[in-house]
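B., you asked whether I could sanity-check this one before it goes into the benchmark set. Here's the sequence:
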Amino acid sequence: MSKLAPSDRFIDLSDYGRPLASYAATKLQHSPVTPIHLTFLFGVSGLVAICFLLAGEFVLAGIFLLLKSVIDAADGELSRVKNTPSHSGRYLDSIFDMLLNLLILLAVQHYTSENMWLTLAAFFGVQLQGTLYNYYYVILRSKSKGADGTSKIFERKPPRALSGEKQRTVNVLFWIFFALYGAFDRIVYWMDAGALKGNTLPNWFMTFLSIYGLGFQLLLIAILLSANLIGYIIPFFIGYSLLFLVFVPLRRGHG
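And here's what the prediction gave me:
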């Protein structure tokens, strides 16, 4: 929550890995390890989780999904403590997140022989859930007193490369990011365009909404795997999307 003013900070249920991530970043601050290294490492952790899932080692799969969540937070923390912000790292992080989400659900589908269309529906739901959370969160950051000003609600063209990164790399990663996330951004905006001009979102609402954050989604998958309920993962995340009927009206009711 370091990018929010104290009055706007909330309990983020999807950010349980932050204490470990902050500790790791502090230990790595003066090392040659870069945030991009950690981004690739969380990608590897996600792939290891998928391998364990396909092998039927559900507890180990869940552990590596949670480890992926911690490392996912650590790359951003390391970027802050080293003072090396990077558009490339941010886009690469999001690209890896979506690809791993798809591969995780495809692995579940392969293991359970679930219908492929239901699997794709679950993937669509997972991505739309995360997009709603990010949409409201970035709006909150943009309105928060003391925010760092780097938050962007919508991105339609590549930003100028920062120190230490190449413009060509930023351009390529931006357009991949835009191709993957642009449609979800437009759908969520269509659902609640008024959020941009509405009141600052209350802390309790953001805490409730954080169950749609990626970290919490991975936690739920890890719990279902550990309980040997792999067959419920895909239908669960389809049904989980029904909370849109709660979150969006709640936000609108707040004004």
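One thing to flag: The mean pLDDT is 92. Otherwise nothing jumped out at me.
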